[in-house]
Design goal:
With about 290 residues, the chain is of the alpha/beta class. It contains 11 helices and 6 strands. The chain has a domain of about 200 residues. The longest helix has 22 residues. It binds iron/sulfur cluster. The site of iron/sulfur cluster has 13 residues, from α3.
């Protein structure tokens, strides 16, 4: 890596954190090259056609489970207050949890939690509840064909983090009041929301939305996490090309959490790309990286 870039814990946390102050699960469980993930945070890579196709595929899958997305007219948007603007974000999150409770399946579910003192956030591709009230997690990868070991390991590691965060959510370890009030410092939670927002999600106020979220979590709290987690690898035509089932493993999860938190707390430097994973020659940061090796 360029010697002009520093990677002390304060810089790392700043680079990786979003505006919410939390690190995303994707960044926390990244396995490809830790130095590249720092470069990417400093200089976000351009959206490639493959990334765009992947996003579109996620949208197709989402609509197949969740139905068409909620949309509002321009006229309504012109009338939105600060509370309505916040309700757009919160309503989307809360409605997915409610969908999971009501239909036993949902996609793109936001989860939050803390691992080794690091605040995290993520979006689980899919969760489904079986007849024994166990929650099964699925991570969808929109690439197929070349399932290199590191790609499988990345999917597994992400699922381990999602498993932990989902467990914290349903066991009441996450402060929902704090989450709901994030970015809403000037909002009055008792002010009636715009009629179109009320019609779309059925909540009259932000307070009702927040209470609805808690109610969904409360209903899930009597269930448990299924040990089996799954990664679906699909191609761009939505053909399920591979499904790999893993088992949750406490020891592996703890090793992963320790390894990643060591980096983020400054106990070890970021690692370069391993030769077994790939070649630096294809990295967009090749020219700037003093750690490039092969
Ligand atoms: S050149 Fe190699 S070591 Fe450097 S960021 Fe890219 S992949 Fe990582």
């Amino acid at each position: 890596m360029s010697r002009s870039i520093e990677w002390g814990p304060a810089q790392l946390m700043r680079m990786f954190r979003g505006s919410s102050g939390r690190i995303s699960v994707t960044k926390f469980s990244s396995q490809y090259c830790e130095i590249k993930s720092i470069f990417d945070s400093l200089r976000p890579p351009a959206i490639t056609p493959a990334m765009k196709a992947g996003t579109e595929m996620h949208q197709v899958l989402e609509e197949s489970v969740m139905g068409p997305p909620v949309e509002f007219t321009e006229e309504a948007a012109m009338e939105f207050s600060a509370e309505d603007a916040h309700a757009l974000r919160l309503g989307d999150v809360v409605s997915r949890w409610r969908h999971l409770v009501d239909t036993s399946k949902a996609r793109e579910i936001s989860v939050y939690g803390t691992i080794r003192g690091i605040q995290l956030k993520g979006v689980i591709d899919e969760a489904a509840i079986d007849e024994k009230s166990r929650i099964h997690l699925v991570d969808t990868k929109t690439y197929a064909g070349d399932l290199a070991v590191y790609k499988q390991r990345l999917a597994y590691h992400q699922l381990l983090v999602y498993y932990e965060l989902m467990g914290q959510m349903i066991k009441g370890k996450v402060d929902i009041d704090q989450l709901a009030h994030e970015k809403a410092k000037k909002c009055d939670f008792l002010v009636p929301l715009h009629r179109d927002i009320q019609a779309a999600w059925g909540y009259g106020t932000l307070q009702e939305m927040m209470d609805g979220w808690k109610d969904s979590l409360n209903k899930l709290s009597s269930g448990s996490m299924a040990e089996e987690v799954r990664a679906d690898f699909i191609d761009r035509r939505n053909h399920n090309t591979d499904q790999i089932e893993f088992k949750h493993d406490v020891d592996t999860a703890e090793q992963l959490f320790a390894f990643r938190s060591e980096l983020l707390s400054g106990q070890r430097p970021p690692l370069p790309l391993s030769r077994s994973v790939g070649s630096c020659r294809f990295c967009p940061h090749f020219a700037d990286c003093s750690e490039r090796q092969h």
